[in-house]
Write a structure and sequence with these properties.
Order of helices and strands: EEEHEEEH
Number of strands: 6
Structural class: alpha+beta
Strand content: 25-35%
Distance between the termini: 19 Å
Number of helices: 2
Length: 88
């Protein structure tokens, strides 16, 4: 099981991530509000500004204070590590 740090020591399972998006668009803001209303929103920002929204295959919406590019880079780094381990 591969884990991704989404900031402030919060971790998500890499295989469960469907998308990592910016919270700026109106459709994503609606998704966040609907998740909050349905109690499937996980706020991992520690009171800071939301910079990335992680969408999980379980339907949960996870808010992160880390830039989407940073979270995606961590996901890609994990994938490259797996490839390197397979080659050994």
């Amino acid at each position: 099981m591969k884990l991704i740090n989404i900031g402030f020591g919060n971790i998500v399972v890499a295989s469960r991530v469907i998308a990592i998006v910016s919270p700026e668009s109106a459709p994503i803001k609606r998704v966040i509000q609907e998740a909050r209303d349905a109690n499937i929103l996980i706020d991992a920002t520690y009171g800071r500004k939301t910079r990335a929204v992680v969408i999980a295959d379980s339907g949960h919406i996870i808010l992160s204070a880390v830039q989407p590019e940073t979270v995606a880079g961590r996901l890609i780094d994990k994938s490259e590590d797996d490839i390197m381990e397979d080659d050994d």
